[in-house]
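Subject: Cupin-like domain-containing protein

B.,
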Amino acid sequence: MPASPEPLREVAGLGPDDLSEEILSATQPLVLRGLAAGWPMVRAALASDRAGCDYLRAHYQGATVGAMLGGADAGGRFFYNAQMDGFNFQPVHAKLTGVLDEIEAKRELDPAPTIYVGSTTIDTCLPGFRAHNDLNLRGRDALASIWIGNRTRIAAHYDVPDNVAVVAAGRRRFTLFPPEQLQNLYVGPLDFTPAGQAISLVDFQRPDFDRFPRFAEALRHARVAELGPGDALFIPSMWWHHIEALSPFNVLVNYWWRAMPDYVDTPTGTLMAALLTLRELPPAQRKAWQEIFRHYVFEADADTAAHIPPHARGVLSPLTADGARALRGQLLKKLNR
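Prediction pasted inline below.
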């Protein structure tokens, strides 16, 4: 590659109860070395891969998990097929014990078929696991998920929630890009994706700079970190991240939360509605709507509606649960016309 990503900023010496509001509300990514070093899951995985698998088995009570199976020729990369009308992996439902058995059976193969259990709710899959393997997120209502697999590569994507990702077994390399690098990452379809989020089409192991020339500019802004068992990474909302699992057995625990009330919808719906209503307008009209969004949304402040009596501000009033419910009803009527 023509540029070397710069390392991420790091903090060491913190434990599961030491995450501050400053860290949890940051807008820049941060490596938290050894944050979960005391977790029993981490200690088991450091003893051996078998001990790590056995620790998971001890908490498993039989719930079916969703997994993705990829051939050895994919090199661990979960992606589209050659025609981009499907994917290079097979989704299956399986028992977690069977997945762990498969990982152990294939650990000496190089290359190996790829197996990956992604974004599985911990409390459903592994009851009791969080009693001794958890983080104090200062009252945040976070979704705690577990990700298990062998050597895998997850294409660069963003998530709307903030995220703390903890490496509980194995090693992972994270490559992150700030949100403004969108145009240089060559993102694929928005509505046909391998796992729900739009992904970069660039193969980070073998980038094709003839096809994706602006990716060289993205690399100038990249941040990278390699994490081992017990290390964690705070990933702010909307930061692009590419994840490589580097060991024969890898476990990641992550926590997602939104810094907004539950009644506020995800902005992804707004993007899709804008594609429906704005993108095909003549350029002059799109520019006019750009100004409207700037005024009412992106640069809105206390002065935006100050000239209107408070009782008459309607949707320009501060959003409440009742206001959100009413506004959602208006939108549904318009969409269902």
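The mean pLDDT is 95.

T.
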